[in-house]
Amino acid sequence: MRPQPLPGCSGPGRPAPSAPGSCTTRCTCPYLWLTADRVKEARLIAYRLRTVYTCQLDQRESAHSWQIDCAIDDLAISGAGFRSEKGILQPVLEEMDRKLTGAHLQIVMRQDGRITNIDLEGVKTHNRRESRMVEAMRIILSRSVAGFDLQLPRKGAAPDGVWGQYEGILLMAPTDHGSQGASEIAHVVRQVRGDKAIIESAGKAMIVPPEQDQARNFFDTKLDSVAVFDTANGMLSERVWSARGTPTASSALATGGRGIEYLQAGKIRYLPPDAARPDLGPTQEINLPKDETDSSILQWNPLGGKPR
After folding, report:
1. CA–CA distance, 264 with 234 (Å, rounded to integer)
2. 75-95: per-residue pLDDT in tens?
3. Which residues contact 137 (CB under 8 A, 6 or more apart)?
4. Which of 182, 193, 212, 307 gives the lowest tally of CB atoms within 10 Å of its CB?
5. Domain segments of the chain as ranges
6. pTM (2 decimals)?
7. What would the mean pLDDT of 60-66 be, rounded to a whole number?
């Protein structure tokens, strides 16, 4: 199907009524250290996060960006840790669930739809350990709203239905130290149905997570995405995506084998006022992803370092 012209549209331009939405994301990545109260800590290798947010435009951040406040109405997280540490992760995940339900994500979004910052508010901290725990929770939650980061065409219109984006959260590693590597994404309008535009996106990046030693890993990452944009209300009503990274031959992870892939996949959708809230299921510890063992995961370096 040939690209279709995109009608004039824009990102958030004025305060709007609150909009509930659901997000589901799953991630297999270099492990994160999770900390909890009473000197509990665990390593998280893979997780599936399901959330229900109520988001509204809060205030202008600048002449070209808005701050969006997203209340976390409900949340459930399934996480996998090392098999040798079975049972340690469950109480940490349960504590995260309790602390995050009722907290708020504050997202800074530019007029063109780009996200420039994501912050977590409403979780109290009293010491450095608790601050590191909040940062780990922010990293995990940021993956659930990363799909909102879809840059709109210049001046809100694309006559030929094609435009580019050269930075995107979906092509960044989930870490508190940032990740190196350039990225590029091409957006194409495949179909327009009334005030709904179907946008397909494809992108690529070489993601280089920060390492604590000299061993470096390079992930050749590909992104595929389909989104539904509501041109009448200027909002993204649904998006599904998958970003899969394969370690290059020179990566430390690839030594002696095919290496371990980085995966991030997710879905966001707008919930109309009369829609039933989805059942998110329990917060629970799950088994290690298939084909991954403790010995192979130990080659991964932690994102953000070991808690102190």
Report:
1. 26
2. 999 998 887 888 889 999 999
3. 96, 99, 100, 120, 123
4. 193
5. 19-287
6. 0.82
7. 86
Average pLDDT over residues 163-184: 78
Fold topology of 19-287: Lipovitellin-phosvitin complex; beta-sheet shell regions (2.30.230)
Report how far apart, in Å, the C-alpha atoms of 116 and of each of 13, 109, 238 are: 16, 6, 20
> Residue 227 in contact with residue 255, Cβ under 8 Å?
no
Angle at 283 between CA 281 and CA 287, to 5 degrees: 105
Indicate if the pLDDT at residue 301 is higher than 70.
Answer: no
Q: Which residue has the tokens 């959260």?
A: 169
- Give the pLDDT confidence of 35-58 residue by residue, as tens digits: 777 667 888 888 999 999 999 888
Angstrom distance (rounded) from CA 254 to CA 300? 11
Banded model confidence at residue 258, pLDDT cuts 50, 70, 90: low
Amino acid, single-letter form, for residue 241 = W
Which residue type does 251 have? S
